[in-house]
Amino acid sequence: CLIVLLPLIIMVQATATATIPQYAAMIFPSNKRHVTSRRNILPLIAGTTAGIFMPATDDNAALANSIPPSTPPQSIPGVGMSVPLQPVIVENTNMNPEPTTRLNTKLGQTRIAARELSPLNPSLSPFAENDIYYPLFMFGTWNVTATLRRKVYPYGTQYVPSNSLIEGSPRFRGESAGDTTSYQVKYYSLGDDDDGKKGRVVNIGETSKTKIISDRRFNAISSSAAYKQLTPVQDVTWDPQKDPTRLTLSFGAGPLTDDFMPLGQRRAEVYVTARQKEDTTTTGGSSTFAASERTRQVTLVPGNVIVADTETVTEYQLIEDGHIKAVSRIAVFLTPNPNSREGVLWQQVGGKSVAFFDYELEMYRCGGGTSDDEVGKDVKCCVTAPKGSIQCIK
Question: pLDDT for 258-289, tens place per residue?
């Protein structure tokens, strides 16, 4: 559940030379959407925080990620001109502005601490991996506590396409700086999960088959429930063996509109269009892993199709076995639709991100969830993989 903390302060820095104070040195991760008719509830993927797809529906589904129809038309700023940096920073004044962790990877330093951010480019190599493979220390089921540290609008709020991204976040329209949400995530070994191993106990170790991936189905449903979304994710169609870059989300029934009409069945197609990772070890010997994914979500609602582009970049630091601290950013990008106000704004900002949502994550690995008679007494933890194998590490 969400814990709403103390009031916010909005700080506006008005010049292109202005920096984001602790933020640029920080070590610390979409969405958006359009004006809409009564039938447009916009469930958006905010990215993959901790390897999780976060659908961003909220308790005000009829207004979610949209500018209410009664809002007066907004002018298009800066037409024909380049856009200067005019960052608006929203943070909780009762939180320590200094980050609790330092960024150790180049990926984290260049994308989490950036004041401006261009879209992540896909790899041109034909041998590039088609999924993010995580280090072995991330195997297992984890209890995650995510705290929204700050919201940053690099070019000002006039370039943000949706009021919900100002009032809240891509995950939840009511999420404010300082709010904390808890949920579970799962990582398992892809190569050790197949139909022939269903119900069998498999010991996981460092082998060529050990490819630790995020259980995107489990994680999407878990996070959707944690954020108490009014139209939650009910099911996820995803086959990491055949195509890990595509998911289909099916949503539960939503509320009625103001004129008591059903909102209609919705689903979303999610495509992972680019990814990057970095694995490093600090001089103190601690393990650090960073990963970034760019996604495009196409949401199909009755009478409309909504497209959203986001990127989530997260740096994980192993504090001790079973305990990880992470810093994460969700970056929201406009979509280049030439027939819309958003397309014009996209051109003005050069395709760069128009909103950052920066989080701190605390992660603790859960217990095994199976009896000692099944797996032995020396295991650290076990998970049940999507195809039914029971995977354990010692």
Answer: 555 556 678 899 999 999 999 986 555 669 99
**Secondary structure of the chain in HEC code, one letter for each residue:** CCECCCCEEEEECCCCCCCCHHHHCCCCCCCCCCCCCCCCCCCCEEEEECCEEEECCCCCHHHCCCCCCCCCCCCCCCCCCCCCCCCEEEEECCCCCCCCCCCCCHHHHHHCCCCCCCCCCCCCCCCCCCCCCECHHHCEEEEEEEEEEEEEECCCHHHCCCCHHHHCCCCCCCCCCCCEEEEEEEEEEHHHCCHHHCCCEEECCCCCCCCEEECHHHHHHHHHHHCCCCCCEEEEEEECCCEEEEEEEEECCCCECCCCCECCCCEEEEEEEEEEEEEEECCCCCEEEEEEEEEEEEEEECCEEEEEEEEEEEEEEEEECCEEEEEEEEEEECCCCCCCHHHHHHHHCCCCCCEEEEEEEEEEECCCCCCHHHHCCCCCEEEECCCCCEEEEC
Could you read off the pLDDT of 281-334 as tens digits, one per residue?
Answer: 655 566 999 999 999 999 888 778 888 899 999 999 999 999 999 999 999 999
